[in-house]
Write a structure and sequence with these properties.
The chain is mainly α and 535 residues long. The chain contains 26 helices and no strands. α4 crosses α10, α9 runs parallel beside α15 and α18 runs antiparallel to α25.
């Protein structure tokens, strides 16, 4: 007989990714859409594998391939922690299936363990995409041995546990503290944003004050393994022959995971009850009724929906948050001048600061492409979507309002970051125009593409907001598939130097063409339903 938590995890996993519906449906259109989505995700994973291999080869080229296992574990763990913190604890609490699940003859620890295990599997898949190609390069260059294979296998399997547990624990603390607050979702989001900002700023500060003056991969690996994520140093010791180190690494990850389940289980029901209860009422204040346009009312509705959910807010505005943190970090540390001095000292000649201008602009596009609440806005309608369909408003007005919300967050932060970079690089007028126009157009395209993909791949039968936001096909396509052109532009801008404006122009032109294609081919022709709605 299978463990009850394992059965619950299986059901949640199949439902979260839509595999159960796909397995039992006869709808050819649904299967065709799933096939195209799977192809896009596979392509995105292939690009990630390519870049991982390139970075691994850089380690081998500099003769520090021994540091590669610790680096890949630290990198994947850091990403798991950041995105788990962004997700918060929404996968554990206030799920739609809470009453149904708790009515089953299962323990609270089984429910918590099953939900965490589902998150662990999804994070492990990402860790494998990063660690498997890096391990192949490591074994080819350093030589294969059964012992090293065992060390890397154990480290990869256990590595998501600790960052996942720490991030979920922080999210649980925020959830419990603000459960009685009136605007609890907003307070939870602000607490998560501040925690993430503090961690990222601390990482910038540690990197900035590092006594390593070189910009080689050895310094990067040392920073990742010893300063940013110290447990990864145990992996380095284990590959060097210290068996106790891999046992300590696995034990620390598993112990943190088990302790979290044991500590949260006694309070699980109480926290869910507090979240399900209505917030404290406010005194009635008489106000004058305001007249607004239908479009303005729709935008306000989308804004309120975005700020009513901590998971929706944190996952949708990640890129805008990173852009703001990067802009503030650039203002404080001026990394362009620092890099210019380091590279100029190594090259023995003064370099132009605008060499870093185009790669920084590519970074802005990379993070702006992570801001897409529109990719989940239709799905978040859930059972209330009949209201959207019954409004006497053209579909293009509704879709434009959904797209505008993401643009209003991504574009201003991208422009703020571009202004800081241009000012610190002493950019010329054409460069100012380029770095202000391209991010604006790209933000508009990402927001419109999110609405289009969510229209094509809606998911209304979600049980918790995490599955609707984080595991949906539109989000996966934009977050993974969007990295393909963005990282390509970043790499090309580094390689082309003074001609780095060319890939930016190409991407900007493609984004502009995409905006026109979406507006005339989708927004002006789309319908909210393919046939008359049933009673």
């Amino acid at each position: 007989m299978k463990a009850k938590w394992l059965l619950l995890a299986k059901i949640q996993f199949l439902g979260a990714f839509g595999l159960n519906k796909l397995r039992h449906t006869d709808d050819a259109r649904l299967k065709r859409r799933a096939g195209w989505a799977a192809a896009a995700i596979v392509l995105a994973f292939a690009v990630i594998v390519f870049y991982v291999v390139v970075i691994s080869l850089l380690f081998a080229e500099q003769g520090i391939v021994s540091a590669l296992p610790a680096f890949m574990i630290a990198a994947s763990s850091a990403i798991v922690f950041i995105f788990s913190l962004i997700r918060g604890s929404s996968m554990l609490f206030a799920a739609k299936d809470y009453d149904a699940v708790m009515s089953l003859p299962v323990k609270k620890s089984d429910v918590i363990l099953s939900r965490l295990f589902t998150a662990y599997i999804s994070n492990l898949l990402f860790a494998l995409v990063v660690c498997v190609p890096a391990s192949v390069v490591y074994f080819i260059t350093a030589g294969f041995s059964v012992y090293r294979f065992f060390v890397i296998l154990v480290s990869v399997l256990f590595s998501p546990l600790l960052p996942l547990t720490l991030a979920t624990a922080l999210g649980t603390v925020f959830t419990a503290v603000f459960a009685r607050f009136k605007h609890k979702a907003l307070w939870q989001s602000l607490a998560g944003i501040l925690a993430l900002a503090a961690i990222l700023i601390a990482s910038f500060a540690i990197s900035y004050t590092s006594n390593s003056a070189s910009a080689d991969m050895n310094a990067v690996a040392d920073f990742m393994a010893k300063k940013m994520y110290p447990p990864a140093a145990l992996v380095s010791l284990a590959t060097g022959g210290k068996v106790w180190a891999i046992l300590a690494f696995a034990g620390a990850n598993a112990t943190a995971y088990a302790l979290f389940v044991a500590c949260v289980s006694p309070f699980y029901t109480k926290i869910n009850a507090l979240l399900a209860a209505k917030s404290a009422g406010a005194a009635y204040n008489e106000k004058q009724i305001r007249v607004a346009s239908a479009f303005g009312a729709l935008v306000k509705k989308e804004m309120k929906r975005l700020f009513s959910s901590a998971a929706y807010l944190m996952n949708s505005l990640t890129g805008a948050l990173f852009l703001l943190i990067m802009a503030v970090a650039f203002l404080i540390f001026d990394p362009i001048q620092l890099l210019n001095e380091v590279i100029a000292a190594q090259a023995g000649a003064e370099l132009s600061a605008d060499l870093f201008l185009y790669p920084c602009a590519a970074f802005a596009l990379l993070f702006a492409g992570m801001t897409f609440p529109s990719a989940s806005s239709i799905t978040m309608e859930g059972k209330s979507r009949w209201i959207m369909c019954s409004l006497p408003i053209p579909a293009k007005t509704i879709f434009t309002a959904k797209s505008l919300v993401g643009f209003l967050f991504s574009a201003p932060f991208a422009l703020f970051f571009s202004v800081v970079v241009c000012a610190q690089s002493n950019a010329a007028a054409p460069q100012w125009i380029l770095l202000l126009l391209v991010p604006t157009v790209y933000c508009a395209f990402i927001s419109m593409a999110g609405t289009f993909l969510n229209y094509k791949f809606p998911k209304y039968d979600w049980t918790n907001e995490t599955s609707a936001i984080k595991n949906s096909v539109p989000v996966l396509i934009l977050s993974l598939g969007g990295m393909v052109p963005e990282i390509a532009v970043l790499v090309l801008s580094f390689m082309l130097g003074q001609n780095g404006f060319i890939p930016l122009l190409v991407l900007g032109g493609a984004a502009l063409a995409g905006c026109f294609a979406l507006w005339f081919g989708f927004f002006r022709r789309a319908r909210l339903f393919d046939s008359p709605p049933s009673a």
